[in-house]
Amino acid sequence: MKKYWKTILISLIIVTTIGSYYIQQVMAKDLSFKIETTSGNKGEIDNLIIHATYQSGDIYRSLDISKDGSTNQSESFIRELKERYYPVMFQKYIQEHRKFMRGKEANPGQYFEDEDRLIYTTFSNKEGQGGPFTLQIDILDKKINESSSFKINMPDQVRYDWINEIDVYVVNGKIKILATSYLNNEEELHLYTVDEYKKELEQDSIIAKIESDGVNSASIDIFNDYEKIQNEDYFLYMVEKYKYIEDDEREIISSQMYLYNNRNNEVKEWTIPDELKPYRKLMILQGTDIFIPVRSTNGLVLNRYNIEKNQWEEPISFKYPSIANAKEKPSIQITDGKLYLVDRVSDGHLFLIGDLRTGESLYEGKIISENKENRDADYSLFIKQIYNNTH
Amino acid sequence: MIEVKNVEKKYGRKRVLNSLSFTAEKGEITCLIGINGVGKTTIMKAIMALTPINSGEILIDGEKIRKESYEKVTFIPDTITMLPQMKICDAFAFMADFYKNWNPQRAEELLQFFKLDPTERIANLSKGNMAKVNMILGLALDVDYLLMDEPFSGIDIFSREQIAEVFTSHLIEDRGVIITTHEISDIEHLIDRAVLIDNGKVLKEFSVEEVREKDGKSVVDVMREVYGR
Amino acid sequence: MKNYLKLLNFEVNRFFKLYLTLIGLIIVSQFIGAVVVSKGYMNDVDQVMYKKQLSMSQYTEDYGLFSFDQFVGSEWFLLPIFFSIAVLMIYVFFIWYRDWFGKNTFIYRLLMLPTERITIYFSKLTTIMLLVLGLVALQIVLISIEIQIVNSIIPTDLQSHFLFYDFYSLRMWGWLYPNTFTEFILIYGVGLIFVAVLFTAILIERSYGLKGIFIAIVYGMLSFGVFIAPLLVNRLLNGYFYTLEVFLMELVISIIVLVSAIWIANYLLKYKIRV
Predict the structure, then answer these.
(1) Chain C contact set for A30 (CB, 8 A)
(2) Which of A188, B154, B225, C48 has the most CB atoms in a 10 Å sphere around its CB?
(3) Which of A198, A206, A163, A202 is nearest to A182 (CA)?
């Protein structure tokens, strides 16, 4: 036994060191967050999962925070395998329609869903950049659980580097695809209309077109809820032309917003009041409302514009002592008629849920670190998504 | 008995062993005789499964070689089979650790007989002493068969005498020994059987004593006849 | 089993002196580096604070905090590690070739031991794994000491909070010190398979000489090809398989590659090896 000491020593050190490293890793409680309710209906947070990234210096960690506390996203290897490429909303689709979802991209902009059907569209140019495109449409009938698909070859002259799909919806029996195409320095906003019975591309209308050449640049921004797969009645987009002057500073040459009505294909120019112009990049369109959030040290003001009534409504404000921090922007998510707000306050993050119809706060709470020592530490919490796990 | 039956071995294009067959009995000293490169070392390695053969059979006491066979047969090549930085006692400890048939007393006896220091490192030994240690590694095992490759090559005359003494002692008596050498004159009086090999084939296999009594010839005489020189 | 342990111990003992040297080098270089980097940082801080008349909190506002990463990225820390990796990689080959070459014909002795010859293969394989994991474990111990060294020179107010277990998020350390124990087993399992395939390739060369080198290379590439087959197939089919499914396929394939390597090695050692 004595002559085995070297081997035994090495083995022992390996087992104890690596063993304790991973045991402590599992037990490490210093990175744990919880939601403390300050006021409102606790039931609001029952099924919510906050996907967040914790950052301190060079350290980044993914966390899921819910009413039960936080879980390190990478704690379960198997879960991480499943979720790394498919965000949570797609987990549900994969569970329910495993065969249909094979080989499909996890981009919500390519899907449409209603009670009866799930439709997936994808543009591909098999021959590489600059080659002709084909549009493939897969339709799943959820009631009888059968799927069908067809391909449309885009006209040969249609050559782009790539096409980025933004939204798919169904109106008057036609499938509409909103997408931006890129070719060299040109960008176009397309609305494609597909007749699914004739299985052909009925129309390709180019709604906006811009060009960039280094100094003079332009952008098309679309302000809809990216995650929403169901039909929206409107979409809002903005075309800006600007020029670069020294040091990445931009000078706006022109900026115009358009409101597109999906039901009757009408476009309307839309202007934003001057005092709200600086906040235009944060606009969100939900249903028939356009929201522009403005944050100050007093809290958040949600300016609303009602599209159907064609007027600005009374803004909704939520008061709280915000720490206006250049590094950490507030996280604002508007889903299903509710506002989900996370913003940095003095000893943690405020978590607020507001009702957009009534303008009332439904829930107020704080996301704080369980480890009291950590509360003043210099860290940031970036919210990726707040997901409602009720389905 | 060790039986070598029709063993063929090719190395590249060259036929190193050409349907070679012979037997070595327990209790006898069999000598493989031939010029350099004729396949003597190769056949010994083949018996010990230290080199593959293309066809043919090698049986030790009627069985093909297995891991247990290494407690029954051992090979003493012309190079030392221990790490150079080991001391002699370390080498012995290694053998004792792995071989059930290692006889530590006999190893001790031989060490004293050869007048070697157990704390000496193998790398520091002279060629003659290294050969002696190598021999102890084989002789101190209670094996039935001993294969020795050129035990006398490059050894000084006094060491040679010592080694030759071992051959006549009780250490060799009941065992089967296969030995290769080209110093035939030195050991002619020790060996029981001679196997003359040329070009990978056995030319003649005979009992030394028989030939001396019947034909009055020495091994060298037979060699001259067979090789034609 | 007993012979396996005896041989394993033997192989470990053979390398031990060199191993201690490597460990010594790592410790010396990293500890000196911890002191040098920390003191260097403090010197800069003191100079700037003096020149511009700043208080400590003013300094951190303008210039940020010291991150432990600055030490982990320095040559003091990294060079001995790369050196050790190089040495161990060479030893993967040398652990076999040393028994054939030089004044050594120790391979005779190994092949004549009354034990299954594959035991030799397993003992050498385990040795390499122990040596690698030993250094991995050592580094964990050293990091905790180095944190103390840095903390004794740089006040914590000037440092960004470093959680010991955040080590994995620094650069490529995520590969050596993965987040979960499952991943640890998987990553080092792949390393084991890699060494096993290399060993078998070495045995192919030792059994067939010059043409053996070509066969060995072909074998190596074949093993690699089979290993990445599930990933390639999935890419060809445009992501038809879900990640979990690809993972399970990979698991099965890895086991196949490992078992083949061992089976071929066993065959070669028994019937084809030459001294």
Answers:
(1) 163
(2) A188
(3) A163
